[in-house]
Amino acid sequence: MAVKRTYDENTVVIFDTTLRDGEQSPGATLSSAEKLEIARQLSRLGVDVIEAGFPAASPDDLKAVQRIAQEVGTEDGPTIAGLARAVEGDIRTAWEGVKDAAHPRIHTFLGTSPSHLRMLRIDEEEGLQRIRKAVTLAKSLCDDVEFSPMDAGRTDMEFLIKACAVAVECGATTLNIPDTVGYVTPKEWAEKIEQLIQETPGAGPGSGVIWSVHCHNDLGMATANTLAAVQSGARQVEVTINGIGERAGNTSMEEVVMALHTRKSAYDVRTNVDTTQFMKTSRMVSNYMGMPVQPNKAIVGANAFAHESGIHQDGVLKDAETFEIMTPESVGLHTSRLVLGKHSGRHALKVRLAELGYNVDGDALNQVFSRFKVLADAKKNVTDADLEALMTDEFHKP
Ligand code: KIV
Ligand code: ZN
C-alpha cells in the first residue's frame, strides 16, 4: 500500500541521500536498474525526498536521475532532488535530471569554511556572489531550491549567517547545514542550529524556510548531532540507509527515525516513514552495494533483536519489554532471536527444544541442560542441528 505523506509544523522531512552521498562510499557503485529499484523501495518506505544523484558527475548519473524522476517522482510520491555545485553547468544538468518529477528539487552547494574557500581560491565576498548567482539560476528553473554551505561545521558563524541569508533572499526554500567532516559535538551543533534559525534574516520561525542538517560520522556522532539539531528546530534531516556514505558514512536513517518514534516524548515530532520497511530496505542496499551491515548495528544489525544471556532470554520470554525498547515487528522483523550459547539459561533451551518438537521438563531438562552447557563451552553458538544431535544421543530418540 502506498504511503500517504502529510505535513505539519512538527513533521521532520526525511531526505534520503543513499543514492548520492551513499553511493560515494568507497567501493559502492550501483547500476541504473539497481538505483531505480532502491528508489522504489525508498518511496515505499515513505521518505519525503530522494536525492537521486549528482547529474553532472557522469552521463550515467544523469540518466539514472532522469529515470527515477520519471518513474518514482509521481504526484503522490517523494520529491526528487539532484545535486549541483554552485556553477551554471551543474545547475542546468541537475534540472535536466529532475525536471520530469512531479516534485523536483535542485540542491546546490558551496564550501564556506576557510579551508574550502582556500581550495576554491576565493574570498568570502566572492563566495557570497557565487551563492547569489547559483541560487538565482536554480530558482529560475525550479521552485524548490535547497542550498548547502558545505563544511558549515567549521565555518565562521558570522559568514555562515550571511551565506544563508543570501541563499534565502535569492529563493532557497531549504537551508541545509552540513557537518561535512563529522567534526562537531551535539552541544555545539544544537547551539549552532538554534543561532542560525534565530539570526538569519528572512529565515526565522514562520518564514516558511525549512532548516536541515547533513551530518557525517567521522567521530561516531552523526546520529546524536542530527537529533540535537531536531531539538533546536531543524525540520529536515539528510540521512542514508545503513549509514553508508563518504569515509565513515552519513547519519543512519533507521537510527534517527526509530529514535524519533521510540522517544516521541523527548522530541515531539513525527515522520512519514513506514518503519516496518526498514529491514527490507537495509538488506536491499547492503546486497546491491556489496556492503555488509555490522552485526551490532543499531536497528538493522543481525544482533539488534538477538538475546544470548540467560537473564536476558528469560526476561524476554516472560515479557519482551524487559530488554527490548522497540518491537522487532516495528522494523520489519518477524520475531526477536534467542541465540543459544554459553550464557543461555534453562528457560530459552526449554522453549527452543519445544519448538523443535521435544517437550522436556524436570530432571530430563536438567540433564540436557548440563550437556548443552558443555557443548556451548566448546562452540560459539549451539545450532538446531546440534540440539537435534544432543537429544537423539541423550534419549535415543530418532
Ligand atoms: O557532506 C556534505 O557537505 C555534502 C554536501 C554536498 C551537502 O554532502
Ligand atoms: Zn555529505
Return the string of H and E elements. EHEHEHEHHEHEHEHEHHHEHEHHH
Q: How far is it from the N-terminal to the C-terminal residue, by CA?
A: 46 Å
Largest sheet: 8 strands, parallel, barrel
Strand order, sheet with most strands: 1-2-3-4-5-6-7-8
What overall geometry do the principal axes of the alpha carbons give?
Answer: elongated
List unreliable stretches of 5+ residues.
none
**Any ligands, ions or cofactors bound here, and which?**
3-methyl-2-oxobutanoic acid, zinc ion
Q: What is the tally of beta strands?
A: 10
Indicate the mean pLDDT.
96
The percent range for strand residues is: 5-15%
Description:
It is built from 15 helices and ten strands. The strands form two sheets. Strands 1-2-3-4-5-6-7-8 form an eight-stranded parallel β-barrel, surrounded by seven helices. The chain has a two-stranded parallel ribbon with strand order 9-10. β3 (79-85), α3 and β4 form a beta-alpha-beta unit. The chain is α/β, with parallel strands linked by helices and 398 residues long. The radius of gyration is 25 Å and the shape is elongated. It starts with 12 loop residues before the first strand and ends with a helix. The chain has helices at 32-45, 59-71, 88-98, 114-120, 124-141, 157-169, 186-199, 222-231, 253-262, 264-267, 278-289, 310-318, 346-355, 362-378, 384-395, and strands at 13-16, 49-53, 79-85, 104-111, 145-150, 174-179, 210-215, 236-239, 306-307, 337-338. The model has no long low-confidence stretch (mean pLDDT 96). The structure holds 3-methyl-2-oxobutanoic acid and zinc ion (ZN). The site of zinc ion (ZN) has 7 residues, from loops. Zinc ion is lined by residues 21, 178, 180, 214, 216, 246, 250.
